[in-house]
């Protein structure tokens, strides 16, 4: 029998946090007990409704290893990123006497791991947690780097904590059951990594966009690993977003406003796609970004089926929401734009007319 290849990507510990590994491969769940460790008596497995079977299988497996395991089922997608769902989890942990040596396992997409990490960050002021991302987006972005959080009525991810996991297990087999729209949504964050740091990602997708859209594509593992490495380099050097980490927010200022405007019914990656087209236009209009790179955003995003435009009449509301973006400082709006391919930079306080003109290009 041939050994399955497993790639191990190290996230450096910083700001008092421990280093940890992101594993990419297949059949990785056997790694869970080693990560949980023997100081833990109880394990809480948080999973979305869509992964009820996976959650139960993990529960049974860990129970067989001698842990007291509770499975906590969360709503699917953004419906889980609420304070009510977090409170439901706190209650379940309280009722099972979950202590500081016990461990939370978040199994699911980015929404699930954001909540699981947030519950881990807040329960008893912080317990260990492990991320088992089951979407492309979760593997390349959400589960890596320790940003955890929930949404509020005022905006996306407005409440949260930096609380890195003890390990991340990216089992590529999980992607086989992912609906195609969710798969494509994850490509937006991979493409983001391409524009801000690793243009080979863009070349690989442009070579065969149809293959990029499926887990069976010959480049799937490479695309996922390249995007994880981009994120690993950034978060290893700036866990708490004092500077460098802001580049991972490329396209997100408008994206989060769109998500709120859509009452969190849109997939994150779809909003990020439009947000990146907007950021590219902003870069172009600010005289920073060349036409070819700005235009490349549209071609590569469209080639995999991601959206490029949003409703023109929504600008006043979107602008208002963007003011509570975490990159804002006082009344100063700040955006990540590109000075060129893989040259991200901050654009502070752009002229309102330039912002409107950039939005005009997106709302055509
Ligand atoms: N913390 C971070 O650094 C970070 C980074 C990027 C995105 N995010 C957050 O991640 C979230 C988006 O994550 P997402 O795109 O993974 O979406 P998601 O978590 O909403 O998952 C999408 C849907 O797929 C289902 N699902 C998950 N895995 C499945 C599988 N293997 N098979 C079948 N169905 C499955 C989910 O239940 C859900 O219905 C957003 O809330 C975004 O803000 C966080
Ligand atoms: O990890 C980061 O830092 C990011 O900005 C990655 C983003 O893709 C992600 O969507 C993140 O949750 C956005 O963070 P926020 O601080 O803008 O809420
Ligand atoms: Zn994102």
TrEMBL record:
Catalyses which reaction(s): 7-phospho-2-dehydro-3-deoxy-D-arabino-heptonate = 3-dehydroquinate + phosphate
Cofactor(s) listed in the protein's UniProt record: Co(2+); Zn(2+); NAD(+)
The highest taxon in the source lineage is Bacteria
Major place of localization? Answer: cytoplasm
Keyword entries, A-Z: Amino-acid biosynthesis, Aromatic amino acid biosynthesis, Cobalt, Cytoplasm, Lyase, Metal-binding, NAD, Nucleotide-binding, Zinc
Task: Report residues binding NAD(+).
Answer: 110-114, 134-135, 147, 156
> Which parts of the sequence belong to the 3-dehydroquinate synthase N-terminal domain?
72-183
Any one cellular-component term (Gene Ontology) = cytoplasm
Main EC class the enzyme belongs to? lyase
UniProt xrefs under Pfam families: DHQ_synthase, DHQS_C
Q: Which residues bind Zn(2+)?
A: 189, 252, 268
Function, as annotated, reads: Catalyzes the conversion of 3-deoxy-D-arabino-heptulosonate 7-phosphate (DAHP) to dehydroquinate (DHQ).
- In Swiss-Prot or TrEMBL terms, this protein is called 3-dehydroquinate synthase
Question: Species lineage, top-down?
Answer: Bacteria, Bacillati, Actinomycetota, Actinomycetes, Kitasatosporales
This protein's encoding gene: aroB
């Amino acid at each position: 029998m041939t050994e399955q290849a497993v790639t191990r990507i190290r996230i450096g510990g910083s700001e008092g946090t421990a280093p940890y590994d992101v594993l990419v491969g297949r059949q990785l769940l056997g790694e869970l007990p080693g990560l949980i460790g023997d100081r833990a008596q109880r394990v809480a497995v948080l999973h979305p409704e869509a992964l009820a079977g996976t959650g139960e299988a993990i529960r049974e497996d860990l129970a067989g290893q001698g842990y007291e395991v509770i499975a906590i089922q969360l709503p699917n997608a953004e419906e889980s990123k609420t304070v009510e769902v977090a409170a439901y989890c706190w209650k379940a942990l309280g009722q099972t006497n979950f202590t500081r040596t016990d461990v939370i396992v978040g199994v699911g997409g980015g929404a699930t791991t954001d909540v699981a990490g947030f519950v881990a960050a807040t329960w008893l002021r912080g317990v260990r947690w492990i991320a088992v991302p089951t979407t492309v987006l979760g593997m390349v972005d959400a589960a890596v780097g320790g940003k955890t959080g929930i949404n509020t009525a005022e905006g996306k991810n407005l409440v949260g904590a930096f609380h890195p996991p003890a390990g991340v297990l990216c089992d590529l087999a999980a992607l086989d059951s992912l609906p195609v729209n969710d798969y494509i949504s994850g490509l937006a964050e991979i493409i983001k990594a391409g524009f801000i740091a690793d243009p080979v990602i863009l070349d690989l997708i442009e070579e065969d966009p149809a293959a990029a859209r499926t887990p069976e594509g010959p480049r799937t593992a490479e695309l996922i690993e390249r995007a994880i490495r981009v994120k690993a380099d950034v978060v290893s050097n700036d866990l708490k977003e004092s500077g460098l980490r802001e580049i991972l927010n490329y396209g997100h200022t408008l994206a989060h406003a769109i998500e709120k405007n859509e009452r969190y019914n849109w997939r994150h990656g779809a909003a990020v796609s439009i947000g990146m087209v907007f950021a590219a236009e902003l870069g172009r209009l600010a005289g920073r970004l060349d036409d070819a790179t700005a235009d490349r955003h549209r071609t590569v995003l469209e080639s995999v089926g991601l959206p490029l435009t949003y409703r023109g009449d929504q600008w006043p509301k979107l602008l208002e929401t963007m003011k509570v973006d975490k990159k804002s400082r006082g009344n100063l709006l700040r955006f990540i734009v590109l000075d060129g391919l893989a040259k991200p930079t901050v654009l502070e306080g752009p002229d309102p007319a330039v912002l409107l003109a950039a939005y005009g290009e997106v709302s055509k």
